[in-house]
Amino acid sequence: MSSAGAVDPVDARTAQLATNLAAVLQRIDLACVAAGRDPSSVRLLPVTKFFPVEDVRALYRLGRREFGESREQEATAKVADLRVPSSDGGLDAVRWHMIGRMQRNKAKVIARWAHTVHSVDSERLATALDTGSRAAIDAGIRVEPVEVMLQVSLDDDPSRGGVAPADVARLADHVARSPGLRLSGLMAIPPLGAESDAAFAKLATWHTRLLVEHPEARELSAGMSTDMESAIEHGSTCVRVGTALMGARPITSA
After folding, report:
1. pLDDT tens, 84-117?
2. Which class for 36: exposed (0-12), middle (13-18), buried (19 or more C-beta within 10 A)?
3. Weakest mean pLDDT among 65-74, 107-116, 155-164, 199-208
4. Spatial separation of the C-alpha atoms in residues 145 and 179, rounded to whole Å
């Protein structure tokens, strides 16, 4: 409490996040039970893009250790902020995920902080990320390759990113040969207005095909606030949740 009995806004925000987090985790557990899956087989990735670093710290205090960002400049600033020693710990305790579309000229910077990149959809992007990762390893900035998920297009809209399903195998081979990268699975976003069950069923089929040649690529990043239950039913191992956990965005994406 602050003076005059007013509620501390930091405490109030942490309480709000705690309530939202409990609700999201319950949704994941119930969806796993309905799908006949072990709840531990699905990870929650809080999507903290557009939210302040104080929210990341609050979620850290609530037990979260992985966070998803989609804009390089914003994420890089948060990473730098959390390098500063505090009672919450620093960068070493956090795994950052790049979930948004990446530009090749940002790959070097992103490779310095990203544990996992969910949005690799071309060989040129993979090569740039591999180069950045190897440079970061050589400089002692990171010790492990960047984990890579291939973003698969579930529609024909190039503005939303994603490799065509027919090209997944070739891109997977390219990533698997890259010493600075580690192929970990697939990611996809259902087309706008699409029926999520059908979209995730297709994704599950492509994932099964990928596992034949790349059994190490076990991760399936699928499902968000509105469709996580459907994604879990179709095998998602990582749900990327923003609104249901964080609330409405405090700023626009512009």
Report:
1. 655 554 445 789 999 999 999 999 999 999 999 9
2. exposed
3. 155-164
4. 7
Contacts of 232 (CB under 8 A, 6+ apart): 28, 31, 32, 35, 37, 42, 223, 239
* Encoded amino acid at 24, one letter: V
Domain architecture of the chain: domains with CATH:
8-245 (3.20.20.10)
Tokens of 35: 């799908």
Q: What share of the chain is helix, strand, coil (3-state, %, to 5)?
A: 50, 15, 35
Nearest to 175 by CA among 230, 214, 227: 214
Alpha helices in the chain (DSSP H): 9-35, 53-61, 72-83, 107-113, 123-138, 168-176, 196-213, 228-233, 243-246
pTM of model > 0.85:
yes
What is d(CA 197, CA 38) in angstroms, rounded to the nearest whole number?
20
Phi, psi of 239, deg, nearest 5: -105, 130
Question: Distance (Å, rounded) from C-alpha 126 to C-alpha 139?
Answer: 20
